[in-house]
Amino acid sequence: MASSIVVSSPGKVLMAGGYLVLDSAYSGVVVSTSSRFYSVVQPASAGESGVRPIQITVRSPQFVGATWVYNVNINGGNVVVQQQDVSGPKNKFVQLAIERTLALAVETNGVDSVIDTLSNSLVITILGDNDFYSQRAQLSARNLEPTLASLSRLPPFLHTGVPISQVHKTGLGSSAALITSLVSALLLHLKVIPSDSFDTEIPSEGRKLAHNLAQYVHCLAQGKVGSGFDVSAAAFGSQLYTRFDPEVIQGLMNDAVAPGSLKNVLSPSNKDWNHKAIPFQLPPQVRLMLADVDAGSDTPSLVGKVLRWRKDNAEEARTLWNTIDRYNQTLSKMLLRLSSLATESPEAYKKAVKYLSTIQSVQWLAYPGFPEQERVVVETFVEVRDATEGIRAHMREMGTLSDVPIEPPEQTQLLNTCVSIAGVIGGGVPGAGGYDAVWLLALEPIDCPAPEQPCARVQSVWAQYTALSVSPLLASESTAKGVRVEKWDAVPGLKEAMGQA
Ligand SMILES: Nc1ncnc2c1ncn2[C@@H]1O[C@H](COP(=O)(O)OP(=O)(O)O)[C@@H](O)[C@H]1O
Ligand SMILES: C[C@@](O)(CCOP(=O)(O)OP(=O)(O)O)CC(=O)O
């Protein structure tokens, strides 16, 4: 498909730092997922060139009735993107992503250049990996158990059978990944950033601009400035994230922006973008598993209650947040140390993982005869386990003090059952917590048959929780990178899904 651009961004799991990451004094441990969101930008067919006003059609082939046609009006520096069918369902994430990216392109390259680039109009297709949306209905329709093996048997980009408004999201940050991949694809198509902006993980100026624009659009679409960890993960991949000062975009949080007001604010050289995204990755042979547990909690209301408690109990909250932050930092430091140990002593690391994968974590230190290098690996894994348990205990305490179900009893019971499975390192509730999901870190020894892997043991326990209708997801460090340009043929099922609409 000539002159098409395919860009993808990962989803996210905030393993540690929920609520704290709203304060730039603290950081969050964010793992970007193996599940990715794709934006495909193509010039409309030749027969539609020269259409006025310029039209941009956006299609979401995975949902019923998810096609939006926009008229683009560029008058001087003003860019207005209007939905043709004003009575139809709207998608503010898509509309604002297009409108503000075009406005930035006009500021950067001038009106004539943008109009010339859009002379053929555009067709944009957006698709999320299956894991962004609950596949329970699709699994039961195929009489399949809610297991990883069943999920891997589903066709990629599976049609959900419902309108977007009715989809059960799994909390991987679909809107953040959507916006980041879409603005990145448009910035490339409109030649606002160089074509190689996403060729390496090193944050190029183009990647930084795409991040800043995506953060702005996401906050505008949501009507609030969250911590932004989800967009940062979509842009830069797994990281230790510290939020930017919301003031940097406060002046742009309006229905319309004055011509010329975006470029300087969103520029990577604007030092007011003071977020931090320190590269992070899970150690080898460690898998992040996610269970989509329930219909989900209302994150903004949980956040509102916790922040009210924090405001009314400043001293108590500071002490508790500082304690949680120490556990969060220990978790990230020990996970990074395991990556170093795997590089320094690969054989000792592999042997330790193999042994630990066969027993419960509470027994990991029982054996006294480890050789020195293996003992260091075992002790470091124990520190990770202890950090996860310390985070859980203090997040539960925060929930009790603020009357918010951060780790409610049902989740505590599920997590306690899971972390006692042989080969499971630890777990917790992601992000704001609640009833949405649980995450686990599980060992994955290299030379061990799949049915004996800790992941498989977790699956068999999760399959018993039919009441929780768990649909497990899986993330891993191997593919958890930020925005990247894709080759058509390298994305299984993409061409077929494009034809779905
Ligand atoms: N494939 C898609 N096509 C169009 N819009 C989508 C798609 N997936 C998600 N969205 C938009 O993102 C919103 C969900 O974003 P969000 O609330 O961040 O969910 P989550 O973070 O739990 O995935 C949806 O309501 C919809 O507007
Ligand atoms: C509370 C938070 O710090 C983390 C929320 O993480 P979640 O992953 O729970 O977010 P949703 O996908 O919107 O449900 C709020 C924030 O950082 O913006």
TrEMBL record:
The keyword Transcription regulation does not apply. It holds the Pfam family GHMP_kinases_N. Gene3D superfamilies: 3.30.230.10. GO terms for molecular function: ATP binding; phosphomevalonate kinase activity. InterPro entries: Erg8, GHMP_kinase_N_dom, Phosphomevalonate_kinase, Ribosomal_Su5_D2-typ_SF, Ribsml_uS5_D2-typ_fold_subgr. SUPFAM superfamilies: Ribosomal protein S5 domain 2-like. Keywords: ATP-binding, Kinase, Lipid biosynthesis, Lipid metabolism, Nucleotide-binding, Steroid biosynthesis, Steroid metabolism, Transferase. One of its GO terms (biological process) is farnesyl diphosphate biosynthetic process, mevalonate pathway. It catalyses: (R)-5-phosphomevalonate + ATP = (R)-5-diphosphomevalonate + ADP. Residues 168-237 form the GHMP kinase N-terminal domain. The keyword Ligase does not apply. This is Phosphomevalonate kinase. It comes from Cristinia sonorae.
